[in-house]
Amino acid sequence: MTRFIVFANRKGGCGKTTTAVNVAHCLAEKRRKVLLLDIDPQAHAGTSLGHMVSGEDAGVMALLSEKKSLSDVLVDSSIPGLSLVPASRELTAFEIDNSVIPGSETCLSERLTDPVSEFDYVIIDPPPTVGLLTVMALAAARTPAQVLLELSGSWDDSREADEIIRQIRNSRTKSMKLKDGL
Ligand SMILES: Nc1ncnc2c1ncn2[C@@H]1O[C@H](COP(=O)(O)OP(=O)(O)OP(=O)(O)O)[C@@H](O)[C@H]1O
Ligand SMILES: [Mg+2]
């Protein structure tokens, strides 16, 4: 069964992307088939693996706008077993345009069709916000899902983690179960 991991925190620069890329790399080295999904307009996960895309016809933007399927936007990284869907800055406009549309938080989930089930892990790197893109990532994380909250021990980190937990609890996604003690 495909396991989803979302690295989420509204606090910027706390190591979400670094952790996502390194965990993805380590899992691939352990011969797991891994999909790294970059949904941050900063696109750092993709660029750190050498993939830069732009425009609405490429990467995760093409997937969300239904111009291309998942298999069309998947790219292989230089690491065997690790595939990537790169992000682009156009995601900012996507978030602004779609935030007020009811039900848009399931948009990513609906687009993650086959070959997603071929992966052992789908790792999602969202932006440092609790806007539509992060909510979409949380909603796409099917059971069993793991939401890793980056915590350095600082007060503001803990405060932002509380906000993410509140968002998860309020999520309209019925399929997502919150692990006890998260
Ligand atoms: N464990 C670590 N030790 C030292 N530096 C780190 C560590 N993890 C990340 N960094 C550095 O911290 C900076 C921010 O990391 P990163 O981009 O992964 O954060 P982020 O949470 O994804 O940021 P953003 O919120 O902007 O997406 C980078 O320069 C990265 O190299
Ligand atoms: Mg990041």
Features of this protein?
single chain, 182 residues, alpha/beta, Rossmann fold, 6-stranded mixed beta sheet, 8 helices, 37% helix, 15% strand, globular, disordered C terminus, binds adenosine-5'-triphosphate, binds magnesium ion
Describe the structure.
The protein is α/β, with parallel strands linked by helices and 182 residues long. It has one domain: P-loop containing nucleotide triphosphate hydrolases (Rossmann fold), CATH 3.40.50.300. The chain is 37% helix and 15% strand. It contains eight helices and six strands. The protein has helices at 16-29, 44-48, 59-64, 70-73, 91-98, 107-111, 132-140, 155-170, and strands at residues 3-8, 34-38, 75-76, 82-85, 121-125, 145-149. Strands 3-4-2-5-1-6 form a six-stranded mixed β-sheet, with helices on both faces. The two termini are 22 Å apart. Residues 174-182 have low confidence and may be disordered. Bound molecules: adenosine-5'-triphosphate and magnesium ion (MG). Residues 12-18, 40, 42, 44, 128 line the site of adenosine-5'-triphosphate. The site of adenosine-5'-triphosphate (ATP) has 11 residues, from helix 1.
Q: How much of the polypeptide forms β-strand, as a percent range?
A: 5-15%
What is the makeup of the main sheet? 6 strands, mixed
SSE string: EHEHHHEEHHEHEH
Average pLDDT reading: 87
Low-confidence stretches: 174-182
Output the CATH homologous superfamily: P-loop containing nucleotide triphosphate hydrolases
* Ligand inventory: adenosine-5'-triphosphate, magnesium ion
Helix content: 25-40%
Q: Please tell me how large the radius of gyration is.
A: 15 Å
User: Shape, please?
Assistant: globular
First-last Cα distance:
22 Å
| Tally of DSSP helical segments | 8
Give me the count of strands. Answer: 6
CATH fold descriptor: Rossmann fold
Class inferred from helices and paired strands? alpha/beta
CATH secondary-structure class: Alpha Beta
